[in-house]
Amino acid sequence: MQNYRVPLLELPPEGRQFQLADAAIWQSPLAEFGMDCRIVQPLRAEIQLIPTEGGCLIRGHLSGQVALPCNRCAEEALTGIDASFEDFEELPDAAQDRPPHLLQDSESQALHGTERLIFEGASPMLDLAAVCWEEFMLALPVSPLCKTDCKGLCPRCGVNRNQSSCNCSEDEGDPRLAVLRGLKLPRQ
Ligand SMILES: [Zn+2]
Ligand SMILES: [Zn+2]
């Protein structure tokens, strides 16, 4: 994948606008983390970087469409992405006196593959690909649904209730015990 690092100290005072539409920006981490998410309509990000006192303002918009497994039936749930975001990247005064919490933050970010601020020598670089990934993760719904009235799977036989009905009756007790009811004891 191309390098999307922007040297923050070289931004003009009025800021700079970036357009990002390289599928690899999202496809690489999706594959890396083994996420069940298919890009249906190309993801695009517009990002504006504005230098400010002590850091840089990150403003942008992300759009596209992905397919995620439905939270109820596990079929594909088409999910539109249309998110505006505004964030701030704080620049440490000097690499030597970075407060401990900043170090911890960047460590935990690295774990999640979203280390946005990288130093090339003394020059702080903002990785726009990491920003795109982070904002994409924030834009995903917590519980995607294939349709708002998805009937889900039958807890007993597993049939997709959107496609067919089954003969399981609703009043056979606690569905969480269904798995035990299906167990066969060895014959003596
Ligand atoms: Zn569903
Ligand atoms: Zn059933």
Helical fraction equals 10-25%
Q: What structural category arises from helix and sheet content? A: alpha+beta
How many domains, in number, for the residues?
A: 2
Low-confidence stretches: 95-101, 107-113
Choose one word for the global shape.
Answer: elongated
> Radius of gyration, Cα only, in angstroms?
23 Å
- Tell me how many strands there are: 7
Distance between the termini: 63 Å
Widest sheet, order of strands: 2-3-4-5
Small-molecule binders here are: zinc ion
Order of helices and strands: EEHEEEHEEHH
Strand content: 25-35%
The tally of helices reads: 4
Summed over residues and divided by their number, the pLDDT gives a mean of: 85
Structural description of this entry:
This protein folds into two domains: 5-139, no CATH class; 151-188, no CATH class. 20% of the residues lie in helices and 33% in strands. It has helices spanning 24-32, 100-111, 128-139, 178-181; strands at 5-7, 16-20, 38-52, 55-69, 76-90, 117-120, 123-127. The strands form two sheets. It has a four-stranded antiparallel β-sheet, covered by helices on one side. Strand 3 and strand 4 (55-69) form a beta hairpin. The longest helix is centred in the middle third of the chain and has 12 residues, at 100-111. It is elongated, with a radius of gyration of 23 Å. The termini are far apart. Bound molecules: zinc ion (2 copies). One zinc ion is lined by residues 154, 156-157, 159, 166, 168.
